[in-house]
Automatic annotation (TrEMBL):
It is a multi-pass membrane protein. Residues 304-488 form the ABC transmembrane type-1 domain. NCBIfam families: HEQRo_perm_3TM. GO terms for cellular component: ATP-binding cassette (ABC) transporter complex. It comes from Acetilactobacillus jinshanensis. It comes from the Bacteria. Keywords: Amino-acid transport, Cell membrane, Membrane, Transmembrane, Transmembrane helix, Transport. The chain crosses the membrane at residues 12-32, 306-328, 469-494. It is found in: Cell membrane. GO terms for molecular function: transmembrane transporter activity. This is Transporter substrate-binding domain-containing protein.
Length: 506
């Protein structure tokens, strides 16, 4: 009893030390980076030195930012994209666009994944505490998109009291709906396309959008209408669109302000950029031709290829980590055992999406990792914890006499484990490993949140370009089903082969 208490005390101390070390390290690094930026402002010189201005955006909000097919490749278009290109041109650098969910953009900016955000982003005093805002380059007016049969029922936000409303997370539309609509049942989503699908399926009574975006969806989607919101605070700072920069990046902000001032004087953004984006979007008739989705086959193929790359790399990483940490957890060395327990329980006790964002944004403060690499690492590390427990159960299922027999024949413990125990363990856990591989394949869709162009990401591009909501979802469901069926068939084939060998030897 005393030994178990002693071990438990050591485990708790080690776990607390581990958690506090990570927390203090990250907590110290983030403020240091922020202070360094404000103390010495080299933001403009740094951009010019690297020759690239990195812009973060969320391309699901036409006519501001959206994607269309161009010779089989997805390209970014929209009024905000044009503004970004114009600023880069004035600075004599190239523009690099990083796409991700709108709700991740400010995190990407604060962790220096992007140099600026142009994504129909509104100025708010709360946001201004953490970022530099440029001067306003456009005003915004928010309307509601509703189903056509409800257009006469709702005339302002007051008529939507006690109703279900959908709004994009992290937007001023979401904040206004939450604060001003009485007893609202508010549902936040990352994608505007998903909100429109929810609206058409009857899950929401209305979706607040800026007027140009609402116009675009109504023009290209049947059965929808637009009504005024009459939200309070639709003039002044609450309704202005600004570019966000790192806190303290004054020189880069000032350079952008010079471009914005000239554009505002010439009305370039409204008269030229927004108008050009509207023409580029096309019409519902053009986008929804009978064979339109077949024209997007390259998108699905590209997404499938990247999904397979992520899955294969993560499976290999998960298996390696699984074996290592399973053996560590079975070890009689209390230090190795405790490390394994902390790793397995911590990973299994936190959401995988949070882990992906932590690796990309959090560790990105220390090590600059591309989005694809971050996604593979996060999914592989997550899988490793589950595989470790599967392998541990498999090792425990092998009779202890097997190892004793190996040792009596002169084999070392390591060779006995490698040549005798592990092969039998893998045979026993083969079906469970198959289920884990299938789960990992499906979980690869989570990396779309950080801008990795796998199947889910490409599906959203097709949705935005064709204004088809459900059909692209159905297509990738079929693709995932085919892939998982192939994995299960392979696993089942080798399971039968293992059983046949075992029966023949018996």
């Amino acid at each position: 009893m005393s030994q178990s208490k002693h071990w438990l005390k050591k485990a708790i101390i080690l776990a607390m030390t581990f958690i506090l070390t990570i927390g203090m390290t990250l907590g110290m690094l983030l403020p240091l980076n922020a202070n360094a930026s404000s103390a010495t402002d080299n933001s403009l010189n740094e951009v010019k030195k690297k020759g690239v201005l990195v812009m973060g955006t969320s391309p699901d909000y036409p006519p501001y930012e959206f994607q269309k097919s161009h010779h089989g490749q997805s390209k970014d278009y929209g009024a905000d994209i044009q503004l970004g290109k114009q600023i880069a041109k004035k600075l004599h650098v190239k523009l690099k666009i990083k796409n991700m969910s709108f709700n991740s953009l400010l995190t990407a900016l604060n962790t220096h994944k992007v140099d600026m955000i142009i994504a129909a982003l509104s100025y708010t005093p709360q946001r201004a505490k953490n970022v530099n805002f440029s001067k306003s380059y456009a005003d915004a007016y928010i309307n509601f998109v509703v189903n056509k049969q409800d257009a006469k029922k709702y005339h302002s936000y007051k008529n939507l009291a006690n109703q279900s409303i959908g709004a994009q997370l992290g937007t001023t539309q979401y904040t206004m709906a939450k604060k001003q609509i009485k007893n609202v049942h508010l549902k936040g989503m990352d994608s505007t396309n998903d909100l429109v699908i929810g609206l058409k399926s009857g899950r929401f009574k209305a979706v607040p959008m800026e007027k140009p975006a609402a116009d675009a969806y109504i023009k290209n989607t049947t059965g929808l209408a637009e009504v005024p919101s009459h939200f309070k605070g639709q003039t002044g700072q609450n309704a202005t669109r600004c570019i966000a920069f790192h806190k303290g990046a004054n020189s880069l902000t000032n350079a952008a302000n010079k471009v914005i001032e000239q554009d505002n004087h010439n009305h370039t953004y409204t008269n030229k950029f927004v108008a050009a984006a509207g023409k580029k979007m096309g019409t519902a008739k053009n986008n929804k031709s009978q064979f339109s989705l077949w024209n997007y086959k390259d998108y699905f193929i590209k997404g499938l290829e990247l999904t397979i790359v992520i899955s294969v790399a993560s499976v290999i990483m998960g298996l390696i980590l699984g074996v290592i940490f399973a053996l560590m957890r079975l070890s009689h060395n209390w230090f190795l055992h405790t490390i394994a327990v902390i790793y397995i329980e911590f990973i299994r006790g936190t959401p995988e999406l949070v882990q992906i964002m932590f690796v990309y944004f959090g560790l990105g403060e220390i090590v600059k990792l591309p989005a694809l690499t971050s996604g593979i690492i996060a999914i592989g590390v997550n899988s490793g914890a589950y595989v470790a427990e599967i392998i541990r159960s498999g090792i425990n299922s092998v009779d202890k006499g097997q190892m004793e027999a190996a040792l009596s024949l002169g084999l070392s413990k390591a060779k006995g484990m490698k040549n005798i125990v592990l092969p039998q363990a893998f045979k026993n856990i083969w079906p469970a490993l198959g289920n884990e591989f299938v789960t990992l394949l499906k979980d690869s869709s989570l990396v779309s949140t950080i801008g990795v162009a796998e199947l889910m990401y490409e599906m959203k591009i097709v949705q935005a370009d064709t204004y088809e909501g459900v059909l692209p979802i159905f297509i990738i469901m079929i693709i995932y089903f085919i892939m998982t069926s192939i994995i299960l068939a392979i696993m089942h084939y080798y399971e039968k082969k293992f059983n046949h060998k075992g029966t023949a030897k018996a």
